[in-house]
Write a structure and sequence with these properties.
The complex is a heterodimer of chains A (266) and B (205). Chain A contains 9 helices and 7 strands; from the N terminus they run H-H-H-H-H-H-E-H-E-E-E-H-E-E-E-H. Chain A is α+β, with helices and mostly antiparallel strands and 266 residues long. Chain A folds into 2 domains: 53 residues; 146 residues, Protein Transport Mog1p, Chain A (3-Layer(aba) Sandwich). In chain B, 73% of the residues lie in helices and 0% in strands. In chain B, helix 2 packs parallel to helix 4 and helix 12 crosses helix 13. The longest helix of chain B is centred in the last third of the chain and has 26 residues. Chain B starts with a helix and ends in an 8-residue tail after the last helix. Classes of the chains: A alpha+beta (266), B mainly alpha (205). At the A-B interface, helix 2, helix 4 and helix 5 of A face helix 1, helix 2, helix 3, helix 8 and helix 9 of B.
Chain lengths: 266, 205
């Protein structure tokens, strides 16, 4: 590299903007050429002096101006994010409330799902159908023996329909029987009448109780009581024949127990 | 401490080491000195709003100066009917012509080379500069906006050509030619002053 070439690169060289190859070539030239070396140093010196004057000494206003703009910036951020913060604190309340609501909805869904699985619910639904004449017995008969005979052939478990004596001058009259399905479980449905109100008796295999969510909890007990808003009462008792008897009627519990006990006795 | 507070503190923490440079860049490029505080605040706020987009590990100083330069130009625009951006980018677009001019006319540094007074200045720059004192800054007025901006960015921030090109969103070659012409023009001003003042008269051969 000669002097003319080297001096073309003087700015780039002093700004350290050259590729390493050219940079090396210039360095080599400078070490061998006294004149160029001096010139490069002079240019560097001039540029530095010029820049240092143009950059000027520390401005006494600099500190104050900087602090001013920073504090104004800070204030502006607080103002802008203050409104955001308002939303954030709103979120702080909204999130738990929303979570609680979701929780309640889930619980409600779980419970409402449990309902159709419950024997009480299924039996009462069936009873209401009987009450409103939507369900009629397959075999209409006043004779317990006839209904027993009809139902026994249809189940793997023994079904014995009992004669129910009057209680407190209430005459409980057998009306008939049919096979019905509660949550897909086949049960013997025996229908009675008492004081013009229907009385439903469901006989189901003790093994099938597993299919009903509420029965699992009550298996150990000897009776189940449940009363819904319409005054329909539900009573369930186990029998000696490994079956379960559920009585549903719009009557007082005493009458339902009486019916259930007559079945349990067998 | 809230999340936004932490973000603000971190931002100010990153900002503080560059306060001098930011202030100098702002002061040297703004037309109205009364705008400095406003410009700094606006630039800082604009950068803060985009802080989420800042890639950690990249050059914070260059990133911040880009916001500052844009804010400064926007403020300067208030004082001119012609947009400063237009003049600036016209200068950028003119680079082809500028190269052409340089090709036709003798190289600016070659012209300097032929001036005896320039060689005298080179021997003892401080002798002249101290004498010029405040007039040195006046020499910046001989530069156009693009040349002055590039020259001051290089002088104050000591960024590389590439970083300056990124800040101003112009090609590196353009940065180079602006800087080249700025330096040559400044040296011509020094020569003019030296001749007028007769400072090196005794030494002139």
């Amino acid at each position: 590299m000669n002097c003319k070439e080297a001096r073309q690169y003087i700015n780039l060289f002093l700004d350290s903007e050259l590729d390493s190859k050219t940079n090396l070539e210039i360095s080599e030239h400078l070490s061998s050429c006294e004149e160029c070396n001096t010139r490069f140093a002079q240019e560097e010196m001039l540029e530095k002096s010029l820049v240092s004057i143009l950059k000027e000494d520390k401005d006494p206003k600099a500190e104050k101006t900087w602090e001013g703009s920073i504090s104004r910036f800070s204030h502006q951020v607080e103002l802008e994010e203050g409104t955001l913060l308002g939303f954030q604190s709103l979120w702080r309340y909204l999130v738990p409330v929303a979570a609680a609501m979701v929780g309640i909805i889930i619980i409600m869904i779980v419970y409402s799902r449990q309902d159709p699985n419950a024997l009480t619910a299924a039996a009462q639904k069936c009873h209401i159908e009987y009450m409103t004449d939507k369900t009629v017995p397959s075999l209409e008969s006043m004779s317990p023996g006839e209904v027993s005979g009809y139902l026994s052939g249809k189940f793997t478990f023994p079904v014995t329909v009992s004669e129910i004596p009057d209680i407190k001058s209430h005459h409980i009259k057998l009306f008939g029987g049919k096979v019905c399905h509660l949550n897909g479980v086949s049960v013997a449905y025996v229908m009675y009448h008492c004081c013009n109100a229907p009385v439903s008796v469901f006989i189901l295999n003790a093994k099938d109780l597993e299919n009903f969510s509420d029965m699992k909890r009550y298996i150990a007990g000897d009776r189940i009581l449940f009363k819904n808003e319409d005054g329909i009462t539900f009573v369930a008792v186990p029998t000696k024949q490994d079956t379960f008897v559920c009585v549903v009627a719009d009557h007082d519990v005493e009458l339902l127990r009486w019916v259930a006990e007559n079945f349990a006795k067998i | 401490m809230t999340k936004s507070n932490k973000k603000k503190e971190l931002f100010i923490e990153l900002l503080t080491p560059h306060r001098d440079i930011l202030y100098r860049v702002c002061k040297s490029l703004i037309w109205n000195r009364n705008d400095i505080e406003d410009v700094l605040q606006t630039a800082i706020m604009n950068a803060y709003r985009s802080f989420d987009k800042f890639e950690e590990g990249s050059n914070f100083k260059a990133w911040m100066i880009k916001f500052l330069i844009n804010t400064v130009f926007n403020f300067n625009k208030k004082y001119t009917r012609q947009s400063i951006f237009e003049t600036f980018h016209e200068g950028v677009l003119d680079t082809g012509k500028a190269y052409h001019d340089e090709h036709d006319n003798p190289d600016m540094f070659e012209v300097l080379e032929r001036e005896n007074v320039y060689h005298e200045i080179l021997k003892d720059p401080l002798k002249l500069l101290e004498r010029m004192d405040k007039n040195v800054k006046g020499s910046l007025l001989r530069l156009n906006t693009a040349e002055r901006t590039v020259f001051l960015l290089k002088a104050i921030t000591d960024h590389s050509y590439k970083e300056i090109a990124n800040i101003l969103e112009i090609p590196v070659g353009t940065v180079m030619s602006h800087l080249y012409r700025a330096r040559a023009k400044l040296r011509e001003t020094l020569c003019d002053y030296a001749r007028e003042s007769g400072l090196f008269r005794n030494e002139e051969i």
